[in-house]
Amino acid sequence: MSVFHKNSAKLRDQERARLIWLLTTDKAITSALTNKLTLVEQYDAGKLADDIAEVGALVAHLPAPDLADTLEALPSDARHALWGLVEDSKRGNVLLEASESVYEDLIEGMSDKALLDALDTLDIDEKIYLVQHLPRNLTGRLLATLPAEERARVRQVMNYAPDSVGAIMEFEVIVIRPDVTLGAVQRYLRRLGKMPGNTDKLFVTTRDKTLLGELALQTILLNPAQRRVNEVMEAEPVTFHPEEDAEKVARTFERDDLLSAPVIDAEGKLLGRLTIDEIVDVVYEETDNDIRQMSGLSNEQDVFAPVSKAVKTRWGWLAVNLCTAFIASRVIDGFEHTISQLVALASLMPIVAGIGGNTGNQTITMIVRALALQHIQPGNFSFLILREMGVALINGLVWGGIMGGVTWWLYDDPHLGGVMMLAMVLNLLVASLMGVLIPMIMTKLGRDPAVGSSVMITAITDTGGFFIFLGLATIFLL
Amino acid sequence: MSVFHKNSAKLRDQERARLIWLLTTDKAITSALTNKLTLVEQYDAGKLADDIAEVGALVAHLPAPDLADTLEALPSDARHALWGLVEDSKRGNVLLEASESVYEDLIEGMSDKALLDALDTLDIDEKIYLVQHLPRNLTGRLLATLPAEERARVRQVMNYAPDSVGAIMEFEVIVIRPDVTLGAVQRYLRRLGKMPGNTDKLFVTTRDKTLLGELALQTILLNPAQRRVNEVMEAEPVTFHPEEDAEKVARTFERDDLLSAPVIDAEGKLLGRLTIDEIVDVVYEETDNDIRQMSGLSNEQDVFAPVSKAVKTRWGWLAVNLCTAFIASRVIDGFEHTISQLVALASLMPIVAGIGGNTGNQTITMIVRALALQHIQPGNFSFLILREMGVALINGLVWGGIMGGVTWWLYDDPHLGGVMMLAMVLNLLVASLMGVLIPMIMTKLGRDPAVGSSVMITAITDTGGFFIFLGLATIFLL
């Protein structure tokens, strides 16, 4: 028996890399696939035919999630060339797995009919997920093709906030009654013939859908067939409500090692379920978004977007950054007289600003994480702010002392060294105070503390650093 | 029926918050619990007794993962006071769920015997996990208490790299033979009476442990009892090897929606399994670490560490940052003559440096993520670098043009405006080139691209920005 199964993740890693290599290093393949034949003529026709055959074989062999991943790693023209080769039956699943920006790029080039055909292979929960991201005119057309009950569900889901439990829950659940035996449950399951993906438990409800408990597949297998459901079920399951925040729920899934959990309404009636695979997606998205937002990239960033699109998605923060840098520059300009008297200030001031920005960003990163974990509570808030100020004071005295000494030695001016040290201590205190307050205040205002915090703290420590340093210099040195 | 089950995640959220509130706002509770009675005397004894009783009730009610989370959100003295209240039978599980820094803080204050008692309640896979983080002298003592077979396993796991599949895999698996019927499997399971946590499938092997396939619990329930295992099992499961990188494997779990997967050795023999709950922990750790490392915080950061410890964990990057800021400052100092001739340069130069740092950090964030997703391959690398340079050129011309115009207007000097624009274009090109190259080169060298990338790019764009701007000014304006 071979060590690599056909499904080996490593083998598929290699196949994805090979596909990307073929489509990006040899422009002729993309051109031939999209029928731009003028370019093709200069190439060796035999080798080209071989390469195209290999691309086709790889596309046929790779499962949908791997194809979605490959599409994400291609520039737009190669992406569309590859998309043309994906069989109709796989297209729905590829769209499902693709990130939002790739998904939008792909459906832009599809006819309405092709798109509806692709969606046709999906089950209702998958359709609901994709419909939320369709252009408006298509949403209507897709809705029209659905039975009335499913249409009502799509509408219901679209009413929930995009980052809530309601938006990611699944409707397909297996429901059983409390008074039947495990043997009867097993006969029922065999009659059904299949279960929704990632089913690890069934839900026990009354006839009017009130949730009574949950029955793990394990429990069915471990107990005698004549036991009744209500004797062996978990009667106090962890439940969620559709309005809850998906990121918080993800932390509960992690804390309790859940694989799936029921979603109930305010009256305790079962609405659907959450599964760990949706939760893992939430976790990756949450953390990806946090990382990107802290550095001022938008969520929809497509790494392989063309120049024109990439420019647009980054202009927002660049403009904000330019404004804050401009304000800091005006602060310096206000001290033009001081600098002209003592040019050394110009070369020292970026140190004060830089060290403040560094400390402020460290503090913010820590606080944003602690907020996500719900570790910050009214009780421990004052401890945290005093601790941060204490750390800043010690760091300021130690590193400010060192820089003050170096400055004294470099410029042979003890007063300049003293101003340097004092400015560093003060700017570090400002940085750590604001590093705690900015994310806390943004959370109080109901905003995501990760978005733009970094830009704000840098603006404050730059402007503050220049002002403190040049201000102290004006007072003590002129 | 009440809408909140006893297990409701929301209720536990409230209980955790209440516990933190009690232990941090009223110092008397912590003091009383740790027998520092001098402080206690000034307080109302009746209220104190009530509060302590409430703390006790909450600790008794909350499950281990919630207690671990609460301990993480407390300063050290309150943390130890709370730890003293946790029952022996829960302590092992709390340690298992606690983050590394909290775990180390807690075991520091425990006697060897108390620690070994706590570990005694855990199963072998859990012991193995914790033993990896024990102080050396305790590892030996714990190993001595284990049967020979388990001892060998612990030694085996400790040989794998900490971020590899081997370090997080579990040994407890249920193994069956291919030629038995599903009915026989079910009788076998009932005899076993329980399954390891998060079991969604059994593993089918030969007598010498060669993996033949996997049998989902779903499959057992959905098929007739007389079918044989090898007729209905998945014969090509996704498998992993113990040396593989856990973060990469996590991406495969996400891509394939896996709940568990077999780990096999080079000969295809079953070693153990990976479960989704370990994978979710890996995902959270990976992304938390990325976020923290990019801003120069160490992994072991404990948000509620005392000042002395917090100072130490942040000195490394602060020192690096101070050095790079110092170098940038020396570059400016080299142009002292230029600045003394035209003081306006001092207020304009931070804009050039700042906008470069912003762009460089955006690029690095994008590249680090694309590397983690294995989206960057030799084939698409040149596209990526040209795209980034293209974006930088356009942004430089547009925003540099605007800033150049503003400078011209402010200082009534077209040449100064021209230098400003040219410097911004050049520094943005440097920023985006280095933003792609730094993480790529660090990956080539086998290092984590997230660690310190941000500090390096800022150093380059600061120093480069000052040098380019002041250099151009010296050439064109003096």
Brief synopsis:
With 478 residues, chain A is mainly α. Chain A contains 24 helices and 5 strands. In chain A, α21 packs parallel to α23 (414-444).
Structure commentary:
The structure is a homodimer of 478-residue chains. By secondary structure, chain A is mainly alpha-helical. Chain A folds into three domains: 9-161, MgtE N-terminal domain-like (MgtE N-terminal fold, Alpha Horseshoe); 175-294, CBS-domain, CATH 3.10.580; 307-477, Orthogonal Bundle (Tetracycline Repressor, domain 2), CATH 1.10.357. Chain A is built from 24 helices and five strands. Chain A has helices at residues 9-25, 27-33, 37-40, 45-61, 64-72, 76-83, 88-97, 100-108, 112-120, 124-131, 136-144, 148-159, 165-168, 182-192, 217-222, 229-232, 246-256, 276-294, 307-334, 336-341, 344-372, 378-411, 414-444, 453-477, and strands at 175-176, 201-205, 211-216, 260-264, 270-275. A three-stranded mixed sheet of chain A has the order 1-2-3. In chain A, a hairpin with a 5-residue loop joins β4 and β5. In chain A, α1 (9-25) runs parallel beside α5, α7 crosses α9 and α10 crosses α12. The longest helix of chain A is centred in the last third of the chain and has 34 residues, at 378-411. Chain A is globular and about 90 Å long. The termini of chain A are far apart. Chains A and B meet through α1, α5, α14, α15 and α17 of A and α1, α5, α14, α15 and α17 of B. Chains A, B: Belongs to the SLC41A transporter family. Chains A, B: GO terms for molecular function: magnesium ion transmembrane transporter activity; metal ion binding. Chains A, B: The chain crosses the membrane at residues 391-411, 417-442, 454-477.
